[in-house]
Recover the amino acids of this structure.
């Protein structure tokens, strides 16, 4: 990264509704975030610094504030330092129920957007028609770029749903994360926005990525000649989050979006329905084709902007490339 700030303005938009997330009943294990007290029990002593209930909410609100959002703090801080302008960080719906839509007013003066679509599918977050229109206008500028970042969809319902329990057990054994329930899906806001923009994408499954011999993430495979913005220059790996989605292009997006990078699946992991179809990798980074929008739309997993799942040096290069990309007119 050059010493001169890029002057770019980043918006990080968490598309969850805090009231809908934190009010999830704790007696249901599916389709919700964990509470702090659950993490303390599962991963003792890792989360014991958060044990004091007088200082740290022990429920889901505490998880959002003291675990989830801090995962993205390194990206926000570095992006602000590189650009010379602090990143704007917004939660879609605040504790008091106030919603800040992704509209023209919020996007004014912004040239780079990262939507962290860590909204539980249970909460039904969808982009309004006015938000779709605002993002479409945003993408009319060649210099503008938006990342839409859902997360996994584990234990998704299938037509007929025969063998559901067996399939969910298989998925759980594949990723091997004891903190994940049999059913957990995120990214409804990103899905609805992508569909509204005419580039539908489903974030499917939770796949375990391959690990190199030294314990680092295995290298990603980048499609030759497609990285026109240089976002992946010097980027060798992504991360080792144990359950990453396959980003499946649907319908019109097959022609309007291209696969910029794939990530290999851990061959030592338990079998998964996706791998039984013959795939040894998954589509990890999508990019709009040049004729789709004047600007650039990318789709990745939300943890591509997290500092807690390994591969951080390589991810910092991606973040740097994003904030220092050349101006386009």
């Amino acid at each position: 990264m050059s010493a001169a700030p890029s002057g770019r303005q980043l918006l990080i938009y968490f598309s969850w509704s805090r009231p809908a997330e934190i009010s999830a009943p704790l007696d249901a294990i599916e389709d919700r975030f964990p509470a702090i007290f659950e993490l303390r029990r599962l991963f003792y002593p890792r989360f014991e610094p958060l044990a004091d209930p007088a200082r740290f909410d022990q429920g889901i609100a505490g998880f959002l504030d003291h675990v989830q959002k801090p995962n993205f703090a390194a990206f926000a801080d570095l992006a602000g330092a590189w650009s010379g302008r602090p990143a704007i960080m917004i939660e879609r719906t605040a504790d008091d129920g106030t919603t800040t839509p992704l509209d023209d007013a919020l996007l004014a003066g912004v040239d780079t957007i990262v939507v962290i679509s860590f909204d539980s599918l249970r909460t039904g977050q969808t982009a309004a028609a006015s938000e779709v229109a605002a993002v479409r206008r945003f993408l009319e500028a060649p210099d503008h770029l938006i990342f839409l970042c859902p997360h996994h969809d584990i234990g998704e319902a299938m037509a007929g749903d025969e063998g559901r329990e067996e399939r969910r057990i298989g998925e759980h054994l594949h990723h091997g994360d004891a903190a994940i329930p049999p059913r957990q899906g995120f990214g409804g806001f990103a899905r609805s926005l992508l569909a509204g923009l005419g580039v539908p994408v489903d974030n499917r499954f939770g796949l375990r990525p391959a690990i190199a011999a030294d314990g680092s993430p295995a290298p990603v495979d980048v499609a030759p000649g497609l990285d026109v913005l240089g976002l992946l220059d010097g980027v060798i790996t992504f991360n080792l989050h144990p359950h990453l989605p396959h980003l499946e292009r649907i319908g019109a997006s097959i022609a309007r979006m291209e696969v910029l990078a794939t990530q290999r699946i851990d061959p030592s992991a338990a079998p998964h329905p996706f791998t039984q179809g013959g795939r040894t990798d998954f589509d990890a980074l999508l990019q709009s084709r040049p004729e789709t929008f004047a600007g650039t739309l990318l789709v990745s997993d939300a943890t591509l902007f997290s500092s807690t799942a390994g591969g951080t040096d390589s991810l910092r290069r991606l973040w740097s490339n994003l904030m220092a990309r050349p101006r386009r007119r």
Q: What stands out?
A: The CA atoms of residues 234 and 298 lie 18 Å apart. The first helix runs from residue 18 to 22.
